[in-house]
Structure formats: structure tokens, C-alpha cells
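Structure first, sequence second, as always.
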């Protein structure tokens, strides 16, 4: 009989704060904050380019993914509308752009200096050499990785939707109302991003 896979690890907000307090060297700190705040797959996160960020609209478009150094285009609803960015998260990204040598619009947001900026960092190396040591130092164990951040975002979003539904019911809104409108869901994602980014300044 095959062993049942373990449920993915999910961090609660105090644990997010513990991890952020480790202040991992840049750009890895910004990577982790952005990932928790947006719920992106690591293949999407590391495939971001500066031209994907709309600073005036505070959105980031997901146009590509990178797996094993192979870049593919992605076509999702998020790529059309753009993921909302909390202003503090945009500020964190802008701060990283101001210090990285790879800051042109066509450059990778997380370009690897070991590859002369031609490719972004590889997710496995970041997870093993940066994320897990920081998690262990924070007392969170050795099972923290990219999937943890994505599932943490999803859990925060689901909890926010649950609370929104309870609020609608308590106000007499018909239970047959849609779970969330497109605009409402974008607002919730932005709120999750705000909650996550606030951990970065703890």
C-alpha cells in the first residue's frame, strides 16, 4: 500500500513573522514576502520581469513560467487583469530594483548574478540554501518550502472568503449570492497581500 502524502504545511501569521525576522539576504527576503503575498507558483515568481509590474496601477501580470531553465508563456485570467499589489509590497519591489544591477524593464526581477543576469535564480537552490535554513533558525522545522507559501496564501484567502460570507449572512444577504465577485476576490487577494507584507516589517 502506498503511503498517503502528507498535507502541505501552512504557516499561521505569527510563524510568518518569525520567518521574516530572520531577514534573509536580498533578494531572497523579497522573494519570500512576494510569494506569500501573492500565492504565485515559484515557476511564475522567478519568471517575473520588471516590465510585468505596473507601478501606477499597482498590479503585476503573470505572463510566463520557468521550469528547469525552460521558459513558457502562460495564459491565465490573472495575466489579463493583473494581480493586485499592496503599496508596501510595491515599495519593497522598488527598493530591490534600486539596488540590483539588473534593473532594466526586460531584466528578470530575480536575475541570477551567477548567470550574468541571463536567467533567474533556480527555485530548488533557494529553497535548500536560503529558505529552509532561515525556517530552521526561526524554529519552524525543516519542511518549509515554496509550496508552504502558496498554501499559506490559499488558506488566508479561504479564511477571508469565509468571514466575508458570514458577514453577508449576518447582514441578511441571500445565501444564494455568488461566493465572491471578480472584483471582490481581487480585493481579498490585495488584503491577503497587505496582511502578508505587514509581517515583513515586524
Amino acid at each position: 500500500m502506498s503511503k498517503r502524502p502528507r498535507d502541505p504545511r501552512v504557516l499561521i501569521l505569527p510563524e510568518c513573522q518569525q520567518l521574516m525576522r530572520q531577514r534573509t539576504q536580498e533578494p531572497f527576503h523579497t522573494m519570500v514576502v512576494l510569494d506569500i503575498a501573492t500565492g504565485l507558483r515559484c515557476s511564475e515568481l522567478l519568471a517575473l520581469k520588471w516590465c510585468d509590474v505596473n507601478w501606477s496601477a499597482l498590479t503585476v501580470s503573470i505572463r510566463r513560467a520557468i521550469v528547469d531553465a525552460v521558459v513558457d508563456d502562460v495564459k491565465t485570467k490573472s495575466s489579463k487583469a493583473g494581480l493586485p499589489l499592496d503599496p508596501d509590497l510595491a515599495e519593497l519591489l522598488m527598493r530591490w530594483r534600486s539596488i540590483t544591477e539588473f534593473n532594466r524593464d526586460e531584466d528578470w526581477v530575480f536575475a541570477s548574478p551567477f548567470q550574468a543576469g541571463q536567467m533567474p535564480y533556480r527555485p530548488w537552490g533557494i529553497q535548500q540554501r536560503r529558505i529552509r535554513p532561515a525556517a530552521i533558525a526561526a524554529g519552524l522545522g525543516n519542511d518549509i518550502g515554496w509550496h508552504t507559501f502558496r498554501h499559506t496564501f490559499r488558506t488566508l484567502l479561504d479564511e477571508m472568503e469565509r468571514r466575508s460570507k458570514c458577514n453577508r449572512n449576518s447582514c441578511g444577504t441571500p445565501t444564494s449570492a455568488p461566493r465572491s465577485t471578480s472584483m471582490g476576490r481581487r480585493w481579498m487577494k490585495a488584503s491577503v497581500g497587505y496582511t502578508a507584507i505587514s509581517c515583513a516589517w515586524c
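Margin note: The longest strand covers residues 64-67.
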